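Per reviewer request, we include the raw input and output of the structure prediction for the construct analysed in the revised manuscript.
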Amino acid sequence: MKVAIITDTHFGARKGSKVFHDFFLKFYNEVFFPTLEKEGITTVIDMGDTFDNRKSVDFWALKWAQENYYDRLQEMGCKVHTIVGNHTAYYKNTNDVSGVELLLREYQNVNVISETLEVMIDHRKVLFIPWINQENRDHTLQMIAKTNAQIAMGHLELTGFSPYRGFVMDHGDDKSIFNKFTKVFSGHFHTRSSDGKIFYLGNPYEIYWNDVDDNRGFTIFDTETLEHSHINNPFSIYKKIQYSDTPHQIFNYSEYESKFVKVIVKKKTNDKQFETFLDKLSKVNTLDIKVVENYDLNDNVEFEVSENEDTMSILSRYIDDSEVQLNKSIVKKLIGSIYKEACEVE
């Protein structure tokens, strides 16, 4: 049997922004639900962070989630297994109070999982692991040790994997505790990464600038063969333009309509032509335009930057190559945190 795995939907994200939820809806209307119908999928596994804010709910966003997601799944006869993630657990040291448990009580087809337990999916035993915290850690480790399930699915924070492109976690639980499993699927980190056994599946859509040009979507898992495949979301809300005296007369502006646009200036020899370029770009109803002027690193520093690299990859490599007398992993963690916060600024 094929099941759908989706994670980190973050309903209510960006302070319940209608612009972003319209963008989310395009994924559900044109990718997610049509794929469920085409594949005959009647089981959906939600691996955490269903709602964005662990302490409150935007009522408009809740209504949006009900009408555009949960009501539709219920009408389709889909069973939904929902794991409590760190964004839906009210407290940081226990999963006892969670948004999904309180907000989704009216849905008889939704099974909320707040503690580690085994669940039969078709004829396949799966160990579900919600957010690990101070209270449930011992129980979680005991369940991992004694289960004979081949598959684990959770909302995990493991060292050695990427929470977003260009940054690798150097803290969290050691992945060796999952050695006994054939496959482990996890939410929590929004970018896809794996070591061949543990798979971070990534969230369905772009939410912040650091998500740009990174594959998003959901996953189909076959309980018989244990194979899985990603269904990519083809839609984006962020676009980058590499400006290098780009001819404004022949540039295709239409693809930037209803997008947040970042213009990265590589070469600009004529200010008037550049202003004309920006003016034409604004007329296609972009959501926002940011201009990033390119500036060179110190000429004394031998450091080459590839246009294919993302910002965090460049920063991380620069720190590794530098001669600073500091703990570089701490510096990278700090820079990564600052960069993530900068990307999330409204």
